[in-house]
DNA sequence: GTTAGCACTCGGATCAGCGGAGTGCTAATG
DNA sequence: CATTAGCACTCCGCTGATCCGAGTGCTAAC
């Protein structure tokens, strides 16, 4: 879509005004706002054109205009000039990430940071472990027939799981099995570990070494099912959205919070955005999920040593200051990537 | 406070009606509701007395009466007859707990259960680890200068923490240190472990055995600070409260969700209720926390092998069906206690 | 002690009227 | 030919008036 200069200037001014004030913008207001002094009548003519193009519309005859979803899209794609982040904010953000090395906590902090700085909801897609590399496993004997398994991956994440077993194992057996495991699989991806285990299992158990059998019996179940788990999306500051005037209708909030609870839509959305490099912006219903109808989602992928492993983002009303939110999301993703890399817990 | 029979019957009917309908109850309605056929006029007289006693009041001259906080309190203390739990609900609840042994997950499930069954918010106070018994510790070498510590307590909980260290330790050193630790402290409470460590630290480091020094260096920081952590309260189904008509004002919800975020008030409240055996009910502002003004909290402590270690509860509007919520909370606490005990991961 | 009757009060719904903000159209203007 | 001024028109939201229903408190009768 191509607009002439004047129309663009006008649309930009209109969207900015609406984002700031939250009320339909009339021709008079818009005319006053512009340096190039146009009369309200001229402005009206242009607005009429913009309305025909589907970029703005009036809620009713005698109200001003507000941007449509397409209007926001055009604004974001072609007109938006992103503000650089305030120095103070930047320092505050860096501050938050310094002195922290636990990957889990880093993700939590990123999410909190996003919600605090933007006053909307912060969201983090936590990478599935499928692609991480196996580093180490530990087995701890609990009550008879149950073993605590501790799986440590290359990116420093730790997963605990209690596994019921067929028989009771002696502590020494478990140590042997763990050692075996650690030697054989160190450095391979979890998916490969899984494949390896499946292969082992197909062998006849008689031929198997005793230690291997133990390892299989205990760890088999661990790798059996999906490891990504249902909690791959982390949300912070949902309550911030209660303050947002655009969403103050209970039913909207209900839909939204329902979506937050199930998390499936969010997960899909973030997963999609992970496949794009750089900032993604989903405006209103563009995402295709009705629950996010009045919301926009701004996301950016983050990486661990160059490989994209997840996404951070902000969920706010469609009427948000994109020029402020975008750099915040961008910087958060960068800081998070940085923090994850420098603290990378590689094997030596 | 003592009421005559008729007044009690009337008050009970009034509260029940109001809880069901959510609207001020007038004398005519109340008269119709009662089997003993009293005339509205008589009912009015009694209501007038009840109002003088501060148990009910009218929002305005020509509306019916609604219970005051004190009215609810009297109702709950003296008039409430608790419904037995429906068989179906009970089975559903048992279902949810079966096949689960991980204590962490059990707590999560309890919280979810409470919110699902009552359609309010479920809350669980997660016991601080201070009183749990030390079972086992593992040290895993990460990148140089950082060690992953895994602390396992007697109740089956597992705590991971990455600890930065002063120097780089060899894997063998860490194994030795862990063994040392496990032998010396197995079975003592975490508080005692902490005390023991402090004592060791005061000794001159020259006299110390090398292994002890390593153990101290790595684990010292782990026990240094409060281990209860900021996440000792777990909430589920907050979003359910959006559906509650009594709370549908945005500002109330804001206050409430703010409280949920900081969690401090909740923590205090639940902590108080842990010291009482059996169901506790905090009605409206009774708790002393303004954020819970329009809410009531119903709690019950749960135990692990007889020792009370935490609390489960439901947060809902003051106008809730106490006769239904109370048994749900009660049963949840029992089921949880049971599940924690039968799966108790004692050392053998 | 209980009840019937009655005047009174108050909130909520409905409606008309009004002012303001904004539009669309037309005709005039540079 | 683009721009502007003028004007009639529309529609929302606010205000005040009115009415109705629900409920009360009081008094007098049973």
Task: Report on this structure.
With 348 residues, the first copy, chain A, is α+β, with helices and mostly antiparallel strands. Chain A has three domains: 5-79, Orthogonal Bundle (Arc Repressor Mutant, subunit A); 87-128 and 230-342, Beta-Lactamase (2-Layer Sandwich), CATH 3.30.450.40; 130-224, Heat-inducible transcription repressor hrca homolog, domain 3 (Enolase-like, domain 1, 2-Layer Sandwich), CATH 3.30.390.60. Helices cover 47% and strands 18% of the residues of chain A. Chain A has helices at residues 5-21, 27-33, 40-52, 69-79, 87-97, 103-118, 171-185, 190-202, 210-224, 250-262, 264-274, 322-342; strands spanning 56-57, 66-67, 121-125, 134-141, 146-153, 158-164, 233-236, 280-283, 295-304, 307-317. The longest helix of chain A is centred in the last third of the chain and has 21 residues, at 322-342. Chain A starts with a helix and ends in a 6-residue tail after the last helix. The A-B interface holds A 101-102, 136, 138, 140-144, 146, 148, 150, 152, 156, 158, 160-162, 164, 237-239, 242-243, 248, 250, 253-254, 257-258, 260-261, 343-346, 348 and B 101-102, 136, 138, 140-144, 146, 148, 150, 152, 156, 158, 160-162, 164, 237-239, 242-243, 248, 250, 253-254, 257-258, 260-261, 343-346, 348. The structure holds a DNA duplex (30 and 30 nucleotides).
């Amino acid at each position: 879509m191509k607009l002439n200069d004047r129309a663009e200037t006008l649309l930009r001014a209109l969207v900015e005004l609406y984002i700031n004030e939250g009320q339909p913008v009339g021709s008079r207001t818009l005319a006053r706002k512009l340096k190039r002094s146009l009369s309200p009548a001229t402005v009206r003519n242009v607005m009429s054109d913009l309305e025909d193009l589907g970029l703005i519309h009036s809620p009713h005859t005698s109200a001003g205009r507000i941007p449509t979803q397409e209007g926001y899209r055009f604004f974001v794609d072609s007109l938006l000039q992103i503000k650089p982040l305030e120095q103070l904010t930047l320092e505050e953000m860096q501050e938050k990430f310094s002195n922290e090395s636990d990957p889990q906590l880093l993700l939590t902090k990123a999410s909190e940071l996003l919600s605090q700085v933007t006053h909307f909801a912060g969201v983090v897609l936590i990478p599935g472990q499928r692609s991480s590399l196996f580093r180490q496993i530990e087995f701890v004997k609990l009550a008879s027939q149950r073993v605590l398994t501790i799986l440590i991956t290359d990116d420093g994440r730790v997963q605990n799981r209690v596994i019921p077993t067929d028989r009771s194992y002696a502590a020494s057996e478990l140590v042997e099995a763990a050692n075996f495991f650690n030697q054989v699989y160190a450095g391979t991806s979890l998916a490969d570990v899984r494949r390896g285990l499946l292969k082992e299992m197909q062998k006849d158990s008689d031929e198997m070494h005793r230690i291997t059998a133990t390892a299989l019996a205990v760890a088999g179940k661990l790798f059996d099912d999906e490891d990504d788990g249902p909690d791959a999306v982390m949300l912070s500051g949902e309550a911030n959205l209660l303050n947002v005037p655009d969403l103050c209708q209970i039913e909207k909030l209900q839909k939204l919070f329902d979506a937050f609870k199930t998390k499936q839509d969010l997960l899909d959305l973030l997963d999609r955005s992970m496949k794009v490099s750089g900032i993604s912006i989903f405006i209103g219903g563009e995402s295709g999920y009705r629950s996010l109808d009045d919301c926009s989602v701004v996301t950016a992928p983050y990486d661990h040593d160059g490989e994209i492993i997840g996404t951070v983002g902000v969920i706010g009303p469609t009427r948000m200051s994109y020029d402020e939110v975008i750099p915040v999301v961008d910087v958060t993703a960068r800081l998070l990537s940085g923090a994850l890399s420098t603290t990378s817990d590689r094997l030596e």
